[in-house]
Amino acid sequence: MAALDHVMDPEMPGVSIVALGMVHTVAVDRERVRITLLPPFVGCPALDVMRARAVSAVSQATGLEPDEIVVEYSAAVPWTSDRVAPSCHRALRSRGIAPPPRVTEEVMTEMPPVACPWCGSVDTEAEGVFGPTACRSIYYCRACRNPFEAMKPV
Question: Domain map of the chain by residue range?
């Protein structure tokens, strides 16, 4: 897990796959390390990069050969934005990305105001449902007049 905590999401620099709650299981036996990751969004273009980085990080930390490390994605347990660690919320804000709200029935029926990661104001408006990645939207803060990205709740 310590090695995986150094694997950063390529679309959110400085945010690890562990902090994002993507690591579902790690199993170690005499011949292999098997890691199961939960994809945040189906079709995420960064999945292959994260898999390769996970294999590399575990190989470097353990001395195992890359072919002794199996990293698979599973949708058996759905990833939700509630898996994102509080430390990740802080890291996202420091990079100008609003973290996702806790998923509740109210959030799924009516999105609460999104707080600006720069000034904290909730006087914000959605500018675009589709941001630079499938997991983020674009917002504008009326208080500090800055655009920002917000992680979508899932």
Answer: 4-79, 85-151
Give the pLDDT band (50/70/90) at residue 105: low
End-to-end CA distance of the chain: 24
CATH class label, 4-79: alpha beta
The one-letter amino acid at 11: E
Helix (H, G, I), strand (E, B), or coil: what is residue 33?
Answer: strand
Contact 47, 53 (CB under 8 A): no
Backbone angles phi, psi at 125, to 5 degrees: -140, 145
Higher local confidence (pLDDT), 132 or 91: 91
| C-alpha torsion sign, points 126, 129, 131, 136 | positive
Write the pLDDT tens digit of every residue in 67-80. Answer: 999 999 998 899 98
